[in-house]
């Protein structure tokens, strides 16, 4: 990750070094935060944010679930104000390809009660490059984690809540320590849920399958984009329960996420997926997605938000 110069903090642009919180901030201690991850791409008309409105809508929904009011520096923030703030971060920094809007309980407190603890919001732009690294480009290696995806009954799994990500961090550690690029988590019913920061798709006997939202997944915006693009290309896409066996015996497997984009999986639990090489369907979707996010397909123009 390459850092940038300025971070949006509670309505002001501050120097990277000055965006600080106290060690006792509630969000830092208990994970009481909501965040987003958003990609910025270079298009013919300059930098553009991919599905900005959808990302900020998901952030607002997460804040509603956590009952965090979006009032910073005396000003209330709704969707339009947040969209403008994100664009400002891209404009005022160089080479931003990834943005992290972050709402957190800033107040210094010991104790779990989040009621009336003051909140803050930051929007940071960075240069991330490839999230899963160059190595995963030829085909990613993943493992099934021993950690389960937190259940919808334990946490708002469909929102990006900071505390929920402890499980993702544990699963990711497991993957990295076993020499894999990523980990896939099963849910408490034993069905495939998702990876630590990506949704998962399989292709088997001519159809595309992906876990349905009630399987405790985050409804990824990339997932939604890839489903739409796949349907437009004529594929049948089914949102359903997927067992581990179905995943291990799929012809093709790929992951989708804002940071990772579309990454093809060629090894799961030391077994080759299909013939062990990137498959035709995943490759087609990966290429199409790369064009769509850069505004090269006018059919998806409404997903592209130009910064200038
Ligand atoms: C747990 C989890 N699943 C899936 C995704 C993919 O979601 P999106 O495509 O909206 O980035 C993410 C990333 O945000 C994630 O953190």
Explain how this protein is built.
- The chain has helices at residues 26-30, 52-66, 79-91, 165-177, 221-232, 244-248, 280-293; strands spanning 6-9, 12-15, 33-35, 38-43, 46-50, 71-72, 75-76, 98-105, 119-126, 140-144, 182-186, 192-195, 199-204, 207-211, 237-240, 252-257, 261-268, 271-272, 304-306.
- A hairpin with a 3-residue loop joins β16 and β17.
- By secondary structure, the protein is of the alpha+beta class.
- The chain starts with 5 loop residues before the first strand and ends with a strand.
- The protein is built from 7 helices and 19 strands.
- The chain folds into 2 domains: 6-126, D-amino Acid Aminotransferase, Chain A, domain 1, CATH 3.30.470.10; 134-293, D-amino Acid Aminotransferase, Chain A, domain 2.
- The structure holds pyridoxal-5'-phosphate.
Number of helices: 7
**CATH uppermost class of the largest domain:** Alpha Beta
Helical residue percent band:
25-40%
Query: Which superfamily, in CATH terms, is the homologous superfamily of the largest domain?
Result: D-amino Acid Aminotransferase, subunit A, domain 2
Query: How many strands?
Result: 19
CATH architect. name of the largest domain: Alpha-Beta Barrel
Q: What is Rg?
A: 19 Å
Query: Main beta sheet: strand number and arrangement?
Result: 9 strands, mixed
Q: What are the segments in which pLDDT stays under 50 over at least 5 consecutive residues?
A: none
The averaged pLDDT comes out at 97
What general outline do the C-alpha atoms trace?
globular
Number of domains: 2
Strand content: 25-35%
Give the SSE order as H and E letters. EEHEEEHEEHEEEHEEEEHEHEEEHE
Bound molecules: pyridoxal-5'-phosphate
């Amino acid at each position: 990750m390459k850092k940038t110069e300025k971070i949006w903090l509670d309505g002001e642009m501050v120097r990277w070094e000055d965006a600080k919180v106290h060690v006792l901030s509630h969000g830092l201690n208990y994970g009481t935060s909501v965040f987003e991850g958003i990609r910025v791409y270079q298009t013919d008309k300059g930098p553009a944010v991919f599905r900005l409105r959808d990302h900020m809508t998901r952030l607002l929904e997460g804040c509603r679930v956590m009952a965090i009011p979006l009032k910073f520096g005396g000003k209330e923030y709704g969707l339009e104000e947040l969209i403008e703030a994100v664009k400002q971060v891209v404009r005022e920094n160089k080479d931003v390809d990834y943005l992290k809007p972050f709402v957190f309980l800033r107040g210094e407190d010991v104790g779990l009660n989040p009621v009336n603890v003051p909140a803050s919001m930051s929007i940071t732009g960075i240069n991330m490059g490839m999230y899963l690294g160059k190595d995963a480009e030829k085909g990613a290696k993943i493992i099934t984690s021993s950690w389960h995806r937190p259940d919808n009954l334990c946490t708002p799994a469909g929102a990006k809540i900071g505390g929920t990500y402890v499980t993702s961090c544990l699963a990711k550690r497991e993957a990295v320590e076993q020499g894999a690029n990523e980990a896939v988590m099963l849910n408490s019913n034993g069905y495939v849920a998702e990876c630590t920061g990506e949704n998962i798709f399989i292709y088997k006997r001519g159809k595309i399958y992906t876990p349905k939202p009630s399987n405790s997944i985050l409804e990824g915006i990339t997932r939604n984009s890839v489903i739409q693009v796949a349907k437009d290309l004529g594929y049948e896409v089914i949102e359903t329960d997927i067992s581990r066996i179905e995943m291990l015996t799929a012809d093709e497997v790929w992951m989708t996420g804002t940071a990772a984009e579309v990454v093809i999986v060629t090894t799961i639990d030391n077994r080759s997926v299909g013939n062990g090489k990137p498959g035709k369907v995943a490759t087609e979707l990966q290429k199409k997605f790369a064009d769509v996010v850069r505004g090269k397909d006018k059919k998806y123009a409404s997903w592209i938000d130009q910064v200038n």
